[in-house]
Structures are given as C-alpha cells and as structure tokens.
Design a protein that fits this description.
The complex is a heterodimer. By secondary structure, chain A is mainly α. Chain A is 84% helix and 0% strand. Chain B is mostly helical. Chain B is 79% helix and 0% strand. Classes of the chains: A mainly alpha, B mainly alpha.
Chain lengths: 146, 438
C-alpha cells in the first residue's frame, strides 16, 4: 500500500457521506441531513488537516517546493471550508436552495480538487516522501476526534 | 486578485465563453433554415439544405463548443499548459465562425468561391488549433484513458477536415474524387472519431465527478480509442481498395458495437450513481446515450431489414441517424455539460478575483434552474418533432422553429450566467477601488 492510498480511499468515503447528507437535506429531511452533514464535515476537515499538517510539510521539506502544488491545494481547502460554512448556515436556516447551491459548488470543486491530488500530487508524494511520514496514522488520529 | 496565487494554468474565462456563446447561434440559424426550406430539406442527406444544416450543427454548434471546452479541459484534466490560450482563441474562434457561415452559404449557393473560402478558413483555423492543443496533449504529465482518447480524437479531427477540404475541391471540380464514398469516410471520422472519442474522454472524467458514479472500467478506456481507430481506418480503406458492401456492413457493425458499448456502460454507471438528486446534466446525458443506442438500432435495421440491402442506399435512415446523432446525442450532452461548466467557471473565476473575503453567488444562482429545465424539455420536444418530420414532412417547419427556439433559450440561459459574472466582477472591482491605497 502506497503512502497516500489511505487518502485516496478516504476521498471516496467522503463522497458517500456527502451524497447521503445532500439527498436527505434536499428531500426536506433536515434531521437526517443535519446528522449526515455533521459527519461529512468532520471527516472532510480531518482529511484536510491530515494533508496540511502531515503530508504537505513532508513533501515541502523533501522537495523544497512550498509555493507550488501544495499551496494551491491549501487554497482550495480554504475555499471548501468556506462552502462548508455556507452549507452549515443553510442547514440551520433550513434553506433548501441555499443548501443545494452551496452543496453543488462544493461537490464540483471537491471532485476536481481530488482529481488533481490523485493524478498529480499524490504520485509526486509517493515518490518523494514514501518512508518519512505515516499518513494513515495521522488520518486515523484525527478521525478519532471527529 | 488573490495574492501569490498563480492562476493554475486555467485560461481566462473569455477563452471558453466566446466559443460557448457562439455555438447556440449556429443552432438558431440551422433551425430557421430548416423552417424556411421546409419539407424538401429532409428528403435526402444530399440536398443543399441538408448539407448546409449538417455543417451548421456539426461545425457550427458542436465544433465551436468542443474547441472551447477543450481549451479549458486540457489544462485541468491533463495538467498541460496551452500555449497563449487567449491568442489562440482570439484567432481560431472568429475564423471558425466565419468559415462555417461561408461554408453553409456555399452549400446553399452551389460550389462557388464561398464554399472554397469557408473551407480554407476552417482548415487554417483548425490546423493552428490542432498544433497548439496537440503539443499540450503530447507534453501532458498525466497518463490515462482520457488523454489517450483526446489524442486519438485530435488525430481524427485532422483526418476529418483533411477529407472535408478535399471534398470541397472535388465539388468544385478541381480534383476528381469519389464524392459519396469520401463523404462517408469524412462523416465517420468526424462523428465516430473526433466527436465520440472527445465525448468519451471527457465522460471518463466528468460522469463520475458530477454524479458520483463508479469509475469507467479500464477495458473500455483501452478498447474504445484503438477499436474505433481500427474501424475508421478499415472504413477509409474503401477509398483505396473498393471494399465490397458486405465488408463495409461488418465494419460499420463493429463501430456500432463500440459506440453502443460506450452508451450502455455510461447508462449503467449512471444507474449506479451515489448522488441521487435531480440534475439537468444527468437527464441530458441520458437522453444523449439513449439517442446513441437508437442510432445503433437504426444502423443495424438499415443493414439488416429488407428491402434496404445496404446502409448507403437508405436515405430515410441516413437523415434519421443524422438527427439522432447531432441533436439527440451531441447537442444534448454538450448542453448538459455547459449547464455545469459555465456556472462552475463563473464561480471559480469570481472566487479567485474576490479572494476569500467576497464569496460569489453559488453555482445554482448562476443560471435559474427553471430556465434550464424548461430549455431541456423544449430541446427534447424539438428532437421528437425533427424525427417525426422525417416520416411526416409537413411537420418540418414546426420542428425547425422548435429547435431554433430551444437554441434561443439556451443562448439566453448562458447569457444570464454571463450577466451574473459581469455584475459580480464589477462589484469586486468597485470594492477593490474603494480599498485601494491613496
């Protein structure tokens, strides 16, 4: 198993959590949608912080590239955090359209972000930091706090 | 602009938008031309009106949208830089638009200077385009089914316009070419090569992404480009060897099996999608795939059902197949994708312009949902009317007007997204001006 494979799998897991929360909220089942969203949000944020605190620093130290792909990924994480806040606010106000719009935007942003990580950044990380970090342990530790 | 943020290879928003906003205009012209020409236009694929209509749809609507989308898609999906996309779009877009207009006018007016000028402009524009996009695709650091499909698609585009240009010279009598045979080869490379492979390459990327479906199976990505290329080469060999009709039917059936396989796999993946909320893009995609399956059925019927012994001698089938491919498959899928791409590009560009302090409207606030759903219904009604008009010609005028109306509505929807973009951009710029020092 490669260094980043666990993150790859976790992307798919987050996709599923997203789909369930979105479907429930759009059906007007705010109870289930709210619980599902809280879980999705927690796991996605744990994913981001694992990358930002464990994987990216190791990559940056190994390659000396701190202004390149990892900076872009951090920026997209901040965009997605903002959209999570919009979804949270819509959920609290039970605003279906606002929730649906923020969810759609987050989904497309998240998918193309994941694609860039899986196709470009993760392979680079696997080549450069393979033995220096334990990404799986970092993610596990953060998920336990969710 | 957000500090220290490179724009990450994505071209300026006007690069794809100028193509996207032009494409439906050719659809409007095509619909009006059909209404004006009336029932005679669809009696065969060889009438001047049918040839003009075909090129307004494939080189006007489809090619415009595809060229614009690829300039956006290649940097994002392949991680490959396009050389000066603003300049390329600024040259290719107007040349292509004028070239296709002249070509269509030339078909209506007869093989004169307009036809030659149109073909010349299109070939010049596309040659430049193919070099720029081709270099980017060859240098792409990303590997995978999408890149392979796009590379073979681009090759097929070159073959398509090469034959197209030769056919125009043949029509004008400057070279002797077997017009019917070569037209069949030209059409096959354009539709089964360039268009279908481009669609497949983009689908591998966007279908799982928009609907959270499982990934396309690896065997399809390996088989489709090389299988279609082999079929197209065999299909083209008729020009050199004079293949018997029986062989041609088998080659055509092999191509249909590949195309049908792609449609079936796509529909199955979408049936297994994890995201189960109503979605216009999904419905457009499914309509497109059902149309492709209908083409497969129609081609098999044209070959197998008496009294039509061969495909090329079945004019009614040919017109039906054309409508299903242009309007049913490609324009449906392109429209569905525009309804996702344009709102997302709006959001992305505005978000980067405003940084994290001014959040832009979300994707669903870019084009009104009701407008997209209404336009989609009208599009499919016009498709049904066009198909019925082949069997019952008095319906032709209405079908043409319906199709023109659906393209007007599409243009309106895209323009409303542009309006949101411009309004919000001006607000960001005004806010920046207020905060600027001094």
């Amino acid at each position: 198993m490669s260094t980043t494979e666990v993150l790859h799998h976790h992307h798919k897991h987050c996709d599923e959590l997203f789909a369930d929360a979105e479907a429930a909220a759009l059906k007007g089942d705010w109870e289930v949608g709210g619980e599902g969203f809280a879980r999705f949000r927690g796991e996605l944020l744990a994913h981001f912080s694992t990358e930002e605190e464990v994987l990216f620093p190791a990559f940056e130290a190994a390659t000396g590239m701190s202004g390149g792909p990892t900076q872009m990924m951090r920026f997209e994480h901040s965009q997605m955090r903002e959209l999570l806040e919009q979804m949270q606010a819509a959920l609290e106000q039970r605003g279906r359209d606002a929730f649906a719009g923020a969810a759609e935007t987050l989904l497309v942003l998240m998918q193309q972000h994941n694609m860039k990580e899986e196709n470009i950044l993760y392979p680079m990380c696997n080549r450069t930091v393979a033995d220096t970090v334990d990404v799986a342990a970092g993610l596990r530790e953060r998920l336990e706090r969710v | 602009m957000h500090p220290n943020m490179s724009f990450e290879q994505a071209p300026p928003v006007w690069v794809p938008y100028r193509f996207f906003l032009t494409a439906p205009l050719f659809g409007i012209v095509a619909g009006l031309l059909l209404a004006w020409a009336g029932p005679a236009a669809l009696t065969s694929r060889w009438t001047p009106e049918a040839l003009a209509l075909t090129h307004l749809l494939v080189a006007g609507f489809m090619l415009q949208a595809m060229c614009g989308a690829l300039l956006q898609f290649v940097p994002v999906a392949a991680g490959a830089n396009i050389w000066r996309p603003g300049l390329v779009a600024g040259l290719v877009h107007p040349m292509l638009a004028v070239g296709v207009s002249l070509l269509a006018a030339g078909f209506l007016a007869g093989p004169g200077p307009w036809l030659a000028a149109g073909a010349g402009l299109i070939v010049t524009a596309l040659s430049g385009y193919v070099i720029v996009v081709g270099v980017a695709l060859l240098r792409a650091p990303v590997k995978g089914a999408t890149i392979v499909a796009l590379r073979v698609a681009l090759l097929a585009l070159v073959v398509t316009y090469g034959f197209g240009f030769t056919l125009v010279q043949g029509l004008r009598g400057s070279v002797g070419v077997p017009l019917v045979e070569m037209t069949n080869v030209h059409a096959a490379w354009g539709l089964g090569g360039w268009s279908l492979l481009l669609l497949s390459g983009v689908s591998y990327y966007v279908v799982p992404m928009f609907q959270l479906t499982p990934a396309y199976p690896a065997w399809l990505g390996r088989m489709l480009p090389w299988g279609l290329l082999a079929v197209l080469l065999l299909w083209a060999s008729r020009l050199l060897t004079g293949l018997a009709e029986g062989w041609l039917s088998w080659i055509l059936l092999a191509g249909m099996a590949l195309a049908g396989g792609f449609a079936v796999v796509t529909l199955r993946l979408q049936a297994k999608r994890r995201r189960r909320v109503p979605d216009v893009t999904l419905t457009f995609f499914r309509g497109g795939m059902v149309s492709l399956l209908a083409v497969v059925v129609a081609v098999v019927a044209a070959i197998a059902v008496p009294p039509a012994p061969t495909f090329s001698e079945a004019p009614a089938w040919a017109v039906t197949i054309g409508i299903l491919l242009f309007v049913g498959l490609f324009i449906s899928v392109i429209t569905g994708m525009l309804y996702k791409i344009v709102p997302f590009l709006n959001w992305l560009h505005l978000q980067r312009l405003g940084g994290l302090t001014i959040m832009p409207p979300n994707m669903k606030e870019m084009i009104p949902e009701r407008g997209m759903v209404g336009q989609m219904r009208l599009h499919f009604v016009s498709l049904a009317a066009l198909l019925l008009a082949v069997a019952w010609p008095p319906l032709t005028v209405v079908a043409g007007l319906l199709f023109a109306a659906s393209c007007v509505w599409l243009e309106w929807n895209l323009l409303s997204a542009v309006r949101v973009y411009v309004d919000f951009r001006d607000r960001i710029l005004a806010a920046d001006a207020c905060h600027a020092p001094g």
